[in-house]
Prior knowledge:
Blueprint: E1 2-6, E2 11-16, E3 23-27, H1 38-46, E4 50-54, H2 70-84, E5 90-95, H3 97-108, E6 113-119, H4 124-133, H5 136-140, H6 142-147, H7 152-172, H8 180-193, H9 196-202, H10 207-217, E7 226-231, E8 253-258, H11 265-268, H12 270-283
Parallel strand pairs: 3-4, 3-5, 5-6, 6-7, 7-8
Antiparallel strand pairs: 1-2, 2-4
Amino acid sequence: MRRSRSERTGISYVSSGNADAPLVLCLYGFPDIPRTWEPLSRDLCNAGYRAVSPWLPGYAPSSLEGPFDVPTLAQKILALADELSPSEPIRIVGHDWGAVIASFASALSPARVRAAAMLAVPHLLAFEANLEKHPRQLGRSAYMALFQIPMVSDLVVRWRSFRFIRRLWRTWSPGFDPGSSYFEELELCLRSSMPAPLQYYRALASPKVIRTLRRTLEAGPTVVPTLYLHGERDGCIGPEMTEGQEKHFSALFETLTLAEAGHFLHLERPTEVNEAILRWFETH
Length: 284
């Protein structure tokens, strides 16, 4: 793997595979790091792709300068795609916040995205519609309300060497442990980045951002062929929150729910997840 930085976007990233191979951008979520995509990156490279995993804006060593609203984040990711693959559309994978960014980028500039794979966070309009039917999700999402409170949430997240972060992993992916070295790398990244990663959530409180999100997502269904994967035991977002999201996609759309998998399903069940993503990309 090679580590590089885009001076145009301020985004640092790790890449593997031939520079002239078809590009796959792999975007992680909260709380995570590019290392999360190592198993998928190996399989993508073996299949002839170039895999690029950025540190998202607000995560050191990428720029810590905001704003960190979804439209701005998507524009930065599309700018990185333009820089790395100026003449060919890309494929994109997103987990958690990465899925939100990738989904919005696909809606914003579908000509730049050949195919997409989204993990663990459904289309935002489907999530919103399902909240009324499944109020239990409000309890699962309580951490988002906490993150809206500056200083207090910063202290909670940092408390006792980011114990809160380990707790989220245990709750969201029951029974799964990525290992002490993984958490050490994640803690180092968060320690160097705070409070920027929490500002993703605070940006959701902006009426202007909400209007922009709605205007783009309600303009019409996404035309990018999209594969959606969700863990049956996801403790962050219940699988019932994905109900009806297919109506927000007019191109080919497929859902795969993995039994005995939680929120970090790509690390828990890498063989099944990677095979599904490679199959989707080879088809599209």
